[in-house]
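hey can u check if this looks right to u? its 171 residues, i copy pasted from the old doc so theres a chance i mangled smth
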Amino acid sequence: RTAMAKGHVSGVVLPLYVPDEVRAEGPRIEDHLGMLSTLDRLLEQQGSPFASFDPAEAPRPGSVKVFVSFEGAGAFAEEPQRIDAFFEHGLRLVGLVHMHDNALGTSSTGAAKNRGKEGLTEKGKVLAHRVYDQGGLVDVSHLSDAGFADLVPIAKAHGALYLLDACQSVG
């Protein structure tokens, strides 16, 4: 903590990932709740300099703002409204897919790209809109090219940025 303050670090992104293999049917929203609960406890134990999750709150001098990201949000496909509560706990970045295709879309490393069924599903588009409505960003790091192409008009409709990280060239 002291090193972060001395280094003038003002914010950190903590990615949360629930492996697809956690259950035969894949991750559930409750798995994400468990991860977030653990993170809340750890940050509470650490205390200062970690600031609250409220992005509207100005950081205290020497504090470090914590932002949460999800790596793969397939668990929210059937109940996209449930992601709203996570924004109250610092969620700001949402990767719709991770290493595998899910009910939201196709991953850059997923199997569907070999079958010509790439892109965001209707459920993926609904969740993307919801993320932007909550003031979040969709992380396209693991999204297939077709999924990215499906996301661009949604992001533009919300005046949102694209979050690009370790991705292919965009042009």
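Strands lie at 11-16, 65-71, 91-95, 137-139.
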